[in-house]
Amino acid sequence: MMTLQYNPAERGVADLVVACVQMEPHVGSKHDNVAQCIRHIEAAAHRGASLVVLPELANSGYVFNDRDEAFALAEPLPEGETAQLLAETTQRLGIHVVMGIAERAGKQLYNSAILTGPAGHIGVYRKLHLWNNEHRFFEPGDRGVPVFDTPLGRIAIAICYDGWFPETYRLAATQGADIVCVPTNWVPMPAQPEDRPAMATTLTMAAAHSNGVVIACANRIGMERGQPFVGQSLIVGGNGWPVAGPASVDREEILYAAIDLTRTRSERTLNAFNHVLSDRRADVYDPMLGTGWPTSRT
Amino acid sequence: MMTLQYNPAERGVADLVVACVQMEPHVGSKHDNVAQCIRHIEAAAHRGASLVVLPELANSGYVFNDRDEAFALAEPLPEGETAQLLAETTQRLGIHVVMGIAERAGKQLYNSAILTGPAGHIGVYRKLHLWNNEHRFFEPGDRGVPVFDTPLGRIAIAICYDGWFPETYRLAATQGADIVCVPTNWVPMPAQPEDRPAMATTLTMAAAHSNGVVIACANRIGMERGQPFVGQSLIVGGNGWPVAGPASVDREEILYAAIDLTRTRSERTLNAFNHVLSDRRADVYDPMLGTGWPTSRT
């Protein structure tokens, strides 16, 4: 599905080229990390990508020693230096980028991702589900699952452990998202067999299939202060099958996929009777998932 | 994980042997289908199984010509002949069985599954999400996702297309289910690559992992009135990895797995901070999944 020859004049909903950048940020080296991100974005744009996804916390790195270190690396969004450099880049290249950035909002920190486009800043997503000791540094996200209307299609964002919660993708899809961009720092999970792809692959495929949405995941690689990351970035089509990746476990690389979002939307209709979203039994779920107990109608 | 030597005197929550029967019912041949089911149940019990799962509509077959045929094959539950024979069998063998049965309730039909144990009838689940032209024959389920307390553990049931909806498993898990039994008649899905396991494998693994529940799926095989079925029955542990199967595409076989449900429950705790169910952001989901729109807290 990699598209090398790509004519921007023909860009439309029907032929979106998505790129996922698998790279290795280094905690604390923000200047170098951002420079590296911009080089990758330029490379992807040069090869025809109109939407580029970068990893979680791509500018700061992931394993902070303490909250002071996290605080010093975080920036207000979209006013901070990283977001400004990113907006300059997307304006110059005429593309959209989703990038994980440590956000500072007053005295609060969020594990956030920013969406920036040809006209500059579009929006921010704040990770809802914090993993492990992220709780020491970050507040849980407080802006739900926003879906951003763009000329490319409707874009939602999830970050890493958010993907363990099917609700995340459901909330994106039921609001009309066509594609969910996932900046991530996937780590090894308990009981992972060595000869199988990461469980994240399975979770992503299931979510794409169940919701009829494209999901584009950009993971980091490398080892940071004793914490390994598992690579295996991937792009999954709305039918649940990978269209690019999983990438390697440990190499810097960029995945590309040409996606027809019009087709993705139509493929949610499975046959004359079934549609993956319309078939939801909201009449059953709503009384149950709120309280955790069923309301029987008989 | 197959356990051939198994001492029923040691049966407890910690060593549940689950069996999934992959077989081929023939539409209309109810007497023969039920006899075949009972033979398989006896074989599984003989090999130590204390919980046996049979396919969807295992007594009637699946592809009805018209509603009259479906109506004639359906039975009231638990009063009908199939359920009575099943209860006799589980009482005699001292085991639990989940079996798909076409249910007649007055003039309504349901694609149901019955749970029967050593003391006879326990409960009925009615399929919530109807696939394709099942809409011509069956009413959509109207009893939510019940979870049944048994000496083996807390058992929920889902049927086939129910598994396409992450809400089904969430509703089971948030009500405390340890294991979800899935009588199914999986058919080929659009865009299925020939060299990969059925998408149902991915959906089942993702649901087990996201919810920390065991999922035991018994599919049928064969071709019925032009409709092929894909076999590949499987049993997935609460960490999301298969413990038995996927089975073959086209052979009659019984899968066995020894499951420690105590361990399953404890594995929902991923680390000092994370638990797959407690980490749900109900504060975010509840206002959103009901209406489809977010309620921002900022």
Automatic annotation (TrEMBL), chains A, B:
<dbReference type="InterPro" id="IPR036526">
    <property type="entry name" value="C-N_Hydrolase_sf"/>
</dbReference>
<feature type="domain" description="CN hydrolase">
    <location>
        <begin position="16"/>
        <end position="261"/>
    </location>
</feature>
<dbReference type="Pfam" id="PF00795">
    <property type="entry name" value="CN_hydrolase"/>
</dbReference>
<dbReference type="GO" id="GO:0047417">
    <property type="term" value="F:N-carbamoyl-D-amino acid hydrolase activity"/>
</dbReference>
<keyword id="KW-0378">Hydrolase</keyword>
<dbReference type="InterPro" id="IPR050345">
    <property type="entry name" value="Aliph_Amidase/BUP"/>
</dbReference>
<protein>
    <submittedName>
        <fullName>N-carbamoyl-D-amino acid hydrolase</fullName>
        <ecNumber>3.5.1.77</ecNumber>
    </submittedName>
</protein>
<dbReference type="GO" id="GO:0033388">
    <property type="term" value="P:putrescine biosynthetic process from arginine"/>
</dbReference>
<dbReference type="InterPro" id="IPR003010">
    <property type="entry name" value="C-N_Hydrolase"/>
</dbReference>
<dbReference type="GO" id="GO:0050126">
    <property type="term" value="F:N-carbamoylputrescine amidase activity"/>
</dbReference>
